[in-house]
Amino acid sequence: MKLHFCAADTPHARAAQRTLAGRYGQADVGEADVLVSLGGDGFMLETLHGTIDGPRPIYGMNLGTVGFLMNGYHQEDLPERIARAEPTLLYPLRMRALLANGEAEEALAFNEVSLLRETRQTAVLTVFVDGVERMSELVCDGLIVATPAGSTAYNLSAQGPILPIGASLLAVTAISPFRPRRWRGALLPDTVRINIRVNQPKKRPVSAVADYTEVRDISGVDVWQDRSVNLQVLFDPEHNLEERILKEQFEF
Known about the structure:
Layout: E1 3-7, H1 11-24, E2 34-39, H2 41-50, E3 58-62, H3 78-83, E4 86-90, E5 93-99, E6 104-109, E7 112-117, E8 123-129, E9 132-140, E10 142-146, H4 154-157, E11 169-175, E12 186-189, E13 193-199, E14 206-210, E15 213-215, E16 218-225, E17 231-235, H5 241-248
Parallel strand pairs: 1-2, 2-3, 3-17
Antiparallel strand pairs: 4-17, 5-6, 5-16, 7-10, 7-14, 8-9, 8-13, 10-11, 11-12, 13-16, 14-15
């Protein structure tokens, strides 16, 4: 098994990369059977985005903080662990952000697409689902569209629901909604196309963020799941992603 070790830019992760490469060899990234990502969830997202054009199975080991998308870090028997790991396919969201000048910028998000107010004033948004207006005026600090894999990240912090990894759903969660004050968000099929229009974009500017790609001063955004792109993430059988999502719902 040819492995390529990639590491976050931290002393701990870089040291682990040197140790593991010395022990198991460091294959060229283009020839590797599996990429081993060393860091936290943020670096796993970087690894996912960096391998879209040349997809390889990714096995993460946690050397960060939370490590929700990572396995535990152990140096021993790594090829054997990877061989028995269980694959999970992740499909990203595609964000098409519309600018005031009529141009558009696109980006992919494996966790979530977030719309965020840029100033002290709240954002005022109109939400369409498959071309049908579902909410004429949402006054809030922002809005999140999250995948199942991303439902335990920013979405959970904003009191959004946790989605099982196999659920064909997207979570739509408001950030600090003012009106409607008690709106709890929505669960939508992952086949829908969501359009969010920004009202008064000059007075109340809004940015759109796909994972870590930010587009500022938008007039609106389209979000949909891009099934033409998928990446395989490997998890130890005793600590797979579906089990983590299930476990998260019963921890306080």
